[in-house]
Amino acid sequence: MLYKPGVCNIGKNEIRKRYALAVLSFIITAVLFCLFYLYSFTTIWFVVLVFPLLFGFEGFYQGYLHFCAGFGMSRRYDFSGTRNEHGVVNDKKQHLKDLIRSMQINAYSIWSAVLVTILLVLLQAILH
């Protein structure tokens, strides 16, 4: 893989890390949902689920799109997973493309996390 501004700034190892973060975050969300439901927590507690969901969607979108939002904002790319094949983006137009993609990923993650949290709150209300 090669660095492509606003399209690809991470390689296979970094992509795997993003997917691992997503899976772990979604598992934490499921466990918390079950605990909150089983112990009859009030509805407001279910809103807390937005945080692990946010991390989960952030990891998922970054892996799927082969683009790390944090790297995009900090002018970096890394195709090794060990920082051996990392680089710096010095071109302003390339960095602008990276910033736009980073903001898109963050927006997708926020909206996805909020939507799923709302659905989980509604599910909890229906089940009670």
Structural account:
With 128 residues, this protein is mostly helical. The protein has one domain (12-127). It contains five helices and two strands; from the N terminus they run H-H-H-H-E-E-H. It has helices at 12-38, 43-46, 50-65, 69-73, 92-127, and strands at residues 76-78, 86-88. The protein has a two-stranded antiparallel ribbon with strand order 1-2. Helix 1 runs antiparallel to helix 3 (50-65) and helix 3 (50-65) packs across helix 5. The chain starts with 11 loop residues before the first helix and ends with a helix. The relative contact order is 0.20.
Portion in beta strands: under 5%
N-to-C CA distance: 49 Å
Q: Output the radius of gyration.
A: 17 Å
How are the strands of the biggest sheet laid out side by side?
A: 1-2
Which sheet architecture does the biggest sheet show?
2 strands, antiparallel
Cα shape: elongated
Give the topology.
Layout: H1 12-38, H2 43-46, H3 50-65, H4 69-73, E1 76-78, E2 86-88, H5 92-127
Antiparallel strand pairs: 1-2
